[in-house]
Amino acid sequence: MNSEALLQTESVERLKSIVRGMEEEKGRKITACVITFGCQMNARDSEKLSGILSEAGFELSEDEASDFVIYNTCTVRDNANQRVYGRLGALYAMKKKHPDKKIALCGCMMQEPSVIEKIKKSYSFVDLIFGTHNIYRFASLLCRMYEEGSMVVEIWDKAETIVEDLPIVRKYPFKSGVNIMFGCDNFCSYCIVPYVRGRERSREPKDILREIEVLAADGVKEVMLLGQNVNSYGKGLDVPVSFSELLSMVSEIEGIERIRFMTSHPKDLSDDLIRVMRDTPKVCRHLHLPLQSGSTKLLEVMNRRYTKDQYLELALRIREAIPDLAITTDIIVGFPGETDEDIEDTLEVIRRVKFDNAFTFIYSPRTGTPAASMEQVPDKLTKERFDRLLKLVQDTAREAVSKYEGQVMDALVEEINEHDPSLLTGRLSNNTIVHFPGEPSLIGQIVPVELRECKGFYYLGEIVI
Ligand code: 5AD
Ligand code: SF4
């Protein structure tokens, strides 16, 4: 254990006695609620926050009326920020009734200086603020919050180390995210991630493998390897290891039955990776390959470092090598300078690749990124183009997803269906969701399901016995 991890272990002990003191005073358990905004990385970070809270003696709850509430924020698009401000108002109303309530904010949004200013000025009831680089210091920051009694703000502008061995509470017993790298060096001109998550750093393969071995021993069947750009994994390690090599090593771990990963940058996707995906049954039949735009002109201004033709060539080559692989993507509409011609290019890529799903986003200017100071497209034009694109995405996705109708495929049972408790919800290797009747005791198991009816992005099915 390094000195930083040791310091945090000591802080957890201090925190335990603070929590015990509060319990005695109130004559009950002290509750804590972690709310996550944004991506899988944040979801994983929240599991680390929950791990520390639980270790310190807090009772975890999903209720924002809890004694301690932390928002793990996202800032990739402005609507994520607006949601946080909106919900903070509601928290303030609760805090006025219960002045002992503590409120903390962390995550990507907190790495923006303008946000910190705004919170200090207009949301001064917040008790603790920290960012993405010092999340592993959560235990000592919490001690400070309880001991100091005034707003604690600690933001670092870069990461100092990667701290291993923090306690974690997983949301699902049978599947888990695993960080393989942090940060991003690509500086796509619209994206704030490199500014708020810092430079690209890969974890040592031995640390990743050990983490996954422990997960497997604990009953985890599916892991999702997480990084902003997993295809460039391994650069900067003492002994460089490529992402495809890492994938092969992970697939050797007994007990792990499915491996997913997010996100792939098209410019770095190697032939080796295609081969390993094709030849390794444990690697799920799903690739998320963000396109962003089909226009070579816009891709250049976006600093994506591939052309429309290069993307098409790659996607179609992958389709040919692994025909049952689902390809999903991200697309931005309304990027500065976008014309009808650019949208036509994007529509053509969608038509030719026939994505199994596409997440479409309206461009959101982010302060400090190059695209924010470029001339913006009028909202009305963007809205019309967005609707056109969404319609095509839905049509092609239905076509791509429905081709498995009638087949039997393995599904990992994840939960009871949200809307109909007689149904279970499972996920196929290709990431498609299927709902089917079954007993809740099957949650966490991989079961064969006949895909009876395609409903667009998902299936209705029946377990095959
Ligand atoms: N505006 C809209 N969408 C964005 N994304 C990233 N930055 C922005 C932005 N400023 C999208 C990209 C990325 C996904 C995670 O979010 O499509 O792949
Ligand atoms: Fe943002 Fe581009 Fe990095 Fe993805 S690759 S996080 S879009 S800068």
Please, could you describe this protein's structure?
It is a single chain. The protein is of the alpha/beta class and 465 residues long. The chain is 38% helix and 21% strand. The chain has 13 helices and 19 strands. 5'-deoxyadenosine binds at residues 76-77, 190-191, 290, 292, 330, 332, 361, 363-364, 366. The site of iron/sulfur cluster has 10 residues, from helix 6.
How many β-strands, per DSSP? 19
- How many strands, which pairing sense, and closed or not: the largest β-sheet? 6 strands, parallel
- Please report which band the strand proportion falls in: under 5%, 5-15%, 15-25%, 25-35%, 35-45% or over 45%: 15-25%
Q: Structural class, from helix and strand content?
A: alpha/beta
What is the CA-based Rg, rounded? 23 Å
Query: What is the general shape?
Result: globular
Q: What small molecules does this complex bind?
A: 5'-deoxyadenosine, iron/sulfur cluster
Keywords:
465 residues, alpha/beta, six-stranded parallel sheet, globular, binds 5'-deoxyadenosine, binds iron/sulfur cluster
Short description:
The protein is of the alpha/beta class and 465 residues long.
